[in-house]
Amino acid sequence: MSTNKVQKQDVLQAVVVANFFHKNFWPAADGDSACLLPLVNRPLLHYTLDMLESSGILDVIVFCSSGSADRIKASVQRASGARRLNVVYTTSDTCRSFGDVLRHLDACALIRNDFVLLWGNVVGRLPLLPLVKRFKTLRQSGDKGAVMTIVYQRSSDPNTTSAADQTVVLAADTGRVLFHNRARGKINLPLELVLDNRTVDIRRDLVDTNVVICSTAVPPLFADNFDFQTKDDFVKGLLINEEILNSTLYAHVVDGDGYAGEVFDWPSYERVTRDVLHRWTYPQVPEVVDKYSLRYGNVYFGDNIKLALTCDVGNDTVVGSDSKFGSDTRISNTVVGKNCTIGNNVVIENSYLFNGVNVKDKSVIRFSVIGENCTIKENSNISDSCILGNGVVVEPNTELKQKRLLSSDSNNKSKKLSAKAFVYDAENNSDSDDDEDVRGLTFRTRSWSINSGSSSDNDDTASVAASIPDDTCMFYSEVVDSLIRGFEDHVHCDNLILEINSSRYAYNINYREANFQVIRAMLTLNSKAELEALNQVRYYTQLQSKLDYFMPVLRNYIKSSDSCEDCLSAIEDIAKGEELLNTVIVKVIHHLYNMNILSEESILRWHEKEEDTQFAKNIREKANKLIEWLKDAEEETDSDEDDSS
C-alpha cells in the first residue's frame, strides 16, 4: 500500500494550458480553442501531446475553458500521441490569465510532484526527462530554493522579434537567471551582477519556448501574489524579491539537443510551419505523423489527391488527402488542407488553406489564411494578410487586401460584403487587439504597430505613443486596452488596477511614469471616427462618465502632490493633440478637483508654473477663472476660520 503511494507520488506530471487568453488567431480560431488550429493539417495540441509522450511523460493535466472542453477532449481522443497518456481535464470559466490558471491548479491540489508546464501550442522534440532529473538533483543537493527552470531555444537569427525583445543574464557556471528584461535597444544592468558572480553570460539570442520545469512551490507562489498574471510577472517578481520569497530561477538553453517552437501568433505560425516542412522537428514531420509521401523540394502529398497534368506544385508545399487541383494551377510555399478543391488557372502562394476549402477558377490567393469550408468564387483576388474565418463565401470578382472576414455578423460590428462574408471593421471596433503588418502574415499587437508607424485602430493612441520608449509604449497600450475592455464590459475597477499593476511590473515602469500614462490612457479611449462624430457637449459628457467610472483607478494612482502634478501634465500633454479635449480642459480639471482627485494646491502650483510655449500659456489663461474661484474660496475659508477663532 505504501509502496503504491510512493510510486504515485513519483509520477512525473505535465500541465498543458490549452486556453491562450488572446485573439491572435482570430477569426481563424478564438482564444478558447486556438490550440486546435491546424499546423500542417494537424492540430497544435497534438504536437504538444506527442512531444510529452515521446519524452516519457504520461500523466498530463489539460486546462481549458468549459466552453471548449468537449471539442478539445474529442480532438485529444483522435491524437495518435495521446493513446498512452493518462489525460485529466480541469476547467474554469473564471480564469482570465496564465496566473489565474496556476491559482486554479493550486486550489484544486492537482499537483503532486515536480512538473512540466507548457502551453498547448509547443511544437518540437525535447529531452524533458533529463531536464526534470537535473532540476530534482539541483533542488536536493544544490539550491533548495530553486522553483523553476525556464527552457530557451537559441535563435539562429538574434534579430528576430522574439529574440531581440529580451535580455537574459545567466550565471555562467550554474545557469541561474540573474536578470531578465523585455526591451529593445540599450539596457542598464545592475553592477552587482558582475561583482557578485565570477562570470556571467549576457544573452540576447534566446527565444522563449514557454516550456518550464516547476517545483510544487510554483502554484502557491502565484496564489500568494495576485499581481502575477503572466510568466514574465512571475520571473520579474522573483528576481526583484528573491530574498523575501526565498526562490530562485534557472535556465536551460536548447542548442543541438532538441527543438521547441511556440506558435503564439501568425509570424511564429509561419516560422514553425517552415521548420516542420524543413524537418527540424523530426520525428514530428508530415510523413511520420500522418499519411504523406515526401517529394523533392519539401513537397508533401497526402493520399488520394488528384492533380491535373499541367498543375505546377512548387517547393515547401503540403497537399492534404482527397484534394483536387485543376489545370494550369500554380501553388508554392503553401499548406492546403484535406478535402480541398482548387479550380483551373488558380495561383496560391505563401498561404494556408484549412480543410474543405473550395477555390474556383482564375482566383489568386497570396499571403493569406483561408478557414475551414470557405468558398472563393471565380476571379477573386485575396492577398496581403487576409484572414477568413470558417465558412466564408467570397463572391466572384472580389478583391480583398488586409481584411478579416467572418461568415456571420454575430456582434453587429462588421460590414456586410455578401450573404456569408462580413468584413471586420477594426476602425470602428474598440475591441480590436491586433493590427496588421502588410508584409506577409505578420499580425502584431497594437503596441508594436505604434512603434513601427503602421496604422492602428486608434489613430489618436498611435499619435500619442509614437515617441514613447518601447517599454513605456507597451505599458501605455496595455492600459488603453484594459480600460476600453473594462468600460465596455463593466469590469470591476479593482481588477483593472491589478491588470495595470501587472503591466507596470512587467515593463518596469516607475510610479510617476505609471501615473502619467494611466491619465493619458483615460483621455484617449475614443477612436478617431468616434471623435469626429462628437461635438463639444457630447464629448465632455462621455469623458465625464468614463472618468466617473474609473474614479477608483484615479484614486489609486493620484493621491500625492507629485501624482497630481503628473495628472495635470498628462492632461495638458493630450490636449496639445486633441482639439476637443483642449476646449473642455478647464472643465476636466474642475471636475477632478470636485471629485477630490486634484488638490487646490496642485492646481495653483500648475497654473503658476512658467511655460515657454504659447500653447501652455493659452491653457493657463483659459484656467484663470477657475484659479480666481479657487483663490476666493480659499480666502473665504480663511476668513471663516478667523471669525470662528
UniProtKB/TrEMBL annotation:
SMART domains: eIF5C. Transmembrane segments: none annotated. The keyword GTP-binding does not apply. It is found in: Cytoplasm, Cytosol. This is Translation initiation factor eIF2B subunit epsilon. It comes from the Eukaryota. Its main location: cytoplasm. Belongs to the eIF-2B gamma/epsilon subunits family.
